[in-house]
Amino acid sequence: MTDAALCFEDVALKFGEHEILKGVSLEVPEGAVVALAGRNGAGKTTLLRVASRVLRPSAGRVSIRGTPIDEFSRRDLAKELAVVPQDTPVSFPFRVIEVVLMGRSPHLGVLGFESRADVALARDVMARVGIEEFADRSILDLSGGERQLVLIARALTQEPRVLLLDEPTAHLDLAHRVAVLDLVRDFARDGRSALVISHDLALSARASDRLALLAEGRVLDCGRPADVLTPVNLMAAFGIRADVIQAPDGSPLVIPRSAASDAMS
């Protein structure tokens, strides 16, 4: 049994006869950011849903610091782990501060009232995320990118040990993408951990300690981003020919080849 912050051990999941996950083993160490990449349908979001107990695996086990997630109560699991989904439909005009304060739910007493300290924490997180000016606005009045920032603030206000983020920067401009990944890095520097799904390989490589490539429900490779993002692995994971060059900071940059460029070479 491992005491990693989050550990998947031979996790498999089937829907009928269709295998989505096929013996996935992956560790998210304490104090680390692990990026998860792969083509659409590779099983990335499904893996996060298994980790958050939305889905139960057909085989294998998921554990948090050595304890199987099935042994946690719903409230205790929420203290350990927070999820930032790709999108959360909202039909009621909650104020942004109310949505962010929902992250405190696992920590509240029987009556469920937030304390001044809870409100102060929520406002501090909103300031760090850059959405303090939205506090009294309706969540329904925000753009997709602004809503995503609210969900990130809610997850940080939850004060979990592990963050699960599914395409957290998908709706964001470049400045906010960098800011969010900086927040995730700061989260890990405090001794906590994050598992981040992203199609942005360049930013993922810069922000993560490890990068795992998922292909057809299996972990194709996992390690330092510079070691994992190779032309051979990119062909196997995405079915593309690509060049990989080193950025000035040493991180890998993936440059896909088009059919036209291949024909000219």
- How far apart lie the N and C ends? 50 Å
The chain-level structural class is alpha/beta
Please tell me the CATH architecture by its name: 3-Layer(aba) Sandwich
Major sheet details: 6 strands, mixed
Shape: globular
Give the SSE order as H and E letters: EEEHEEHEHHHEHEHEEHHEEH
How many H/I helical runs?
10
**Gyration radius, rounded:** 19 Å
CATH class membership: Alpha Beta
Helix content: 25-40%
The tally of structural domains comes to 1
Low-confidence stretches: none
Strand content: 25-35%
Give the overall average pLDDT.
90
> What is the strand tally?
12
What is the CATH homologous superfamily assignment?
P-loop containing nucleotide triphosphate hydrolases
Spatial ordering of strands, largest sheet = 6-7-8-3-9-10
